[in-house]
Amino acid sequence: MRWADEMRIETPEQIGVDLELSGLGSRFVAQIIDWFWKILFTLLLALVCGVAASLLGKVDLPDDPSVLLISVAVSLIYILWLGAGIYCETMWNGQTPGKRFAGIRVIRQGGGPIDARSACVRNFLAVADFLPGFYLLGALLILLTSNRQRLGDLAAGTIVVRERSAGAAPDEDEHLMAHASDAFRFSPTHLKALAPGDRAIIRSFLQRYEGMDPDGRNRLVFRMADGFVQKTGYVPTIDIDDSHTARAFLASLLRDLDELRRHA
């Protein structure tokens, strides 16, 4: 059994990125917060249905409306408890309100963002984690599997990772941003086309740029720049025809990503 909460993924650009896996504690905190909101909305729904039942009870109807109201309420509660996780993880890049508070995120094992199919699979199987009771199966799987995956994660091919909340030192940030150029400016539309792990890939490459072999580094910086031009749909205003310009392109992309995160 491996106790280290780290895993490394290899990107298509052949850069290794270390990810910190979320443990049982942070996932439990996220689950409690998500349950709190779901229970709150369930109580509000029950209150609305109760008021509706009392109002309909005063109306002379040929059939008893209570059965229909109960059916509607149960259906809405089921949709709420199951659909909320699917919706949030798909629309919020792998986060629910609880995961956002706990600083964790669901991603695919290859490092890409979670999609709707994966979110559906992991949330449909969430009920199995409570077998035989008190979240026992889910807790055991998180503790015993190498990548801290519960049953839904194993079936969906997802992992839960911790957000890197601690940024780089100010002097390191200043060094990286010194290579950014005003010739490259990216709109939010360009930036939203990137996966959550792309920022870490760019930063990791720029941090290691000076110490890399020049020939391999130059080939890689052109490949990365071309890949992110295609991914973002960005049309450069100047030609990226040398390694210095390609590095400036990547540094500018990192700069605008960080700026978007600060404003978000």
From TrEMBL:
For the keyword Transmembrane, the answer is yes
Residue stretches spanning the membrane: 35-56, 68-87, 124-144
Q: Where in the cell is it found?
A: Membrane
> Which UniProt keywords are given for this protein, alphabetically ordered?
Membrane, Transmembrane, Transmembrane helix
Tell me which InterPro entries the record gives: RDD
Record bears the keyword Transferase:
no
* Primary localization class, coarse: membrane
Give the matching Pfam families: RDD
- Residues forming the RDD domain are 22-157
What is the membrane topology here? Multi-pass membrane protein
- What GO CC annotations are associated with the protein? membrane
State the name under which the record lists this protein: RDD domain containing protein
The species is Fimbriiglobus ruber
